[in-house]
Amino acid sequence: MVEGLSSLRPVYAVGGGLHPYQAGSAASYVELGLVAVRAALDDAGVNWAENEASFVGTATLGIAGGRAMLRHLGASTAQILHVENASASGSAAFRAACLEVASGLADIAIAVGVDKPNVVQHAYLATGIPSLVGDAVALPTHFALVASEYAAANGLGPADIARVAVKNHANGVLNPFAQRRKPRSLEEVLGSRPVSGMLTALQCCPVGEGAAAVVVMSETAMARHAAAAARAVRVAGFAARSETYSEQVSFDATLTGITVAAALADAQVRPGELDIVELHDAFSVEELLYLEAMGLASPGRAAAELEAGRFDIGGECAVSPSGGLLAMGHPTGPTGVGQIVEIMRQLRGEAGARQQSDARVGLAHMCGLGSVCYAHVLARS
Amino acid sequence: MTTITPTTDALFAQDRSGSGIVLLGQRCACGHVAFPRHSYGCERCGRVDGQEDAQLDPLGTVLAVATAHVQLNAAPEIPFTVGIVRLSSGPIVRAFVEAALAPGDQARGADGRQVGGSQDADRLLFQAVIEERANG
């Protein structure tokens, strides 16, 4: 079996666009999505008519939203695929766009993530298998349990975990597309509303609305798009995995380790070579677990290394320079695509005040309920 | 022989001969122990047939504890405390636990009607096991 992207045609991310992530508003998803798509097309210097396939990552809109949005870009018969994979919907849409180009079925494709803060049905709670706790364990409580185990195992306290949020809120201040743009002290993070266990409100991501889009291209298309080629970022590797039966509390961390290792192997990149990581920090503790699972920190050491500044912008590896899910926000469908946009900007040297100097290689990582996991490695070409 | 009286939700049952509770799980022919019972197929090997009922002692090690101030639905009333317990028989379960429990503690599930008053009716509650030894 062919394992990775590296065995297929080279794929490049050539245009990225965002609609700011924000609290739910009166704006329709169409308005949000079109802002991001037009920005991505402009960034790539590509006309809509040239796009051969659209992959729309959405988890909350309901069925058939894509064409009703994309028709306003002009007449096109290009395929549209809607992709739902919980929090990783956008990441899955980006993977599908890459595969379309890598396989040779298209030379230009676009991944779009768009969502509104709608209430959705949770199929995973409707299996018919009962539980001792019913549906009492909401997502923040699951991650509060993860934090409890992790803190106890490593002799850590609430402040060690809360510092993740302090860092990511500080990064969000520098990102005009972030939903949360206020610097937060450790005391403010710890003193914010208690949510579950040691997790407080400022350690839980805001779920609002927004949109993100990325145009991907083959070398064939780049030959006629010199401007896009000049700023292209190579999609050097990827991987997608799902959770197996598990007798672990933090199964997402195990799944992350497997998935990221596969993506890094595909790209022939070692963890220490990563300059940028955008990861699934929906809850503060996740960042620590995933940094260890990815091999960026030794087991139990991520909190100390984060406190020492190793994962700051300007540190050894900038982690969640966009502000991550904690500060940029987690509008669901857009999130995984927005991570790619941030990494593209970083690798092109276009990230402004958030710029990690001389960034060459970046990793995007998302988990989705279920659990599913995605990793993409991007490299300056 | 133990006589089992299933509770309404059939997740656990009371042993008529004593005050003990057993969790109603199943053991697959592949050796995988699952809780609760279901007929969909083994998560490890995929077998649909070959599941035999297994009464699991609700005794285990607490792996994690969290007191929740948020919930999906009206019940249970917040705040409430949940935990993850690794049963001595293998599976890990999410359960309501005493708020004083901490990771590493030994805990045993008991019928909430006996240990927690009316609001815990029909609910299993894991409590600290201070010392557990055979009589005699």
How would you explain this protein's 3D organization?
The complex is a heterodimer of chains A (381) and B (136). Chain A contains 13 helices and twelve strands. With 381 residues, chain A is an alpha/beta fold. In chain A, the strands form two sheets. A ten-stranded mixed sheet of chain A has the order 3-2-4-7-1-8-12-11-9-10. A two-stranded antiparallel ribbon of chain A has the order 5-6. In chain A, a hairpin with a 2-residue loop joins strand 5 (194-196) and strand 6. The mean pLDDT of chain A is 96. Chain B has 136 residues and is an all-beta fold. Residues 115-120 of chain B have low confidence and may be disordered. Chain B is built from one helix and ten strands; from the N terminus they run E-E-E-E-E-E-E-E-E-H-E. Chain B has one helix spanning 112-115, and strands at residues 4-6, 12-15, 21-28, 33-34, 51-56, 59-68, 80-87, 92-97, 106-111, 124-128. At the A-B interface, helix 4 and strand 5 of A face strand 6, strand 7 and strand 8 of B.
Helical amount of chain A: 25-40%
Tell me the β content of chain A: 15-25%
Outline of chain B: globular
Distance between the termini of chain B: 22 Å
Query: Overall pLDDT of chain B, averaged?
Result: 83
Structural class of chain B: mainly beta
Unreliable segments of 5+ consecutive residues of chain A: none
Q: Roughly what fraction of the amino acids of chain B lie in strands?
A: 35-45%
The number of strands of chain B is 10
Distance from first to last alpha carbon of chain A? 27 Å
Looking at the structure, what is the overall shape of chain A?
A: globular
How many strands, which pairing sense, and closed or not: the largest β-sheet of chain B? Answer: 5 strands, antiparallel
Runs of chain B in which pLDDT lies below 50 for 5 or more consecutive residues are 115-120
Order of helices and strands of chain B: EEEEEEEEEHE
- The helix content of chain B is under 10%
Query: For the report, how would you describe the main beta sheet of chain A?
Result: 10 strands, mixed
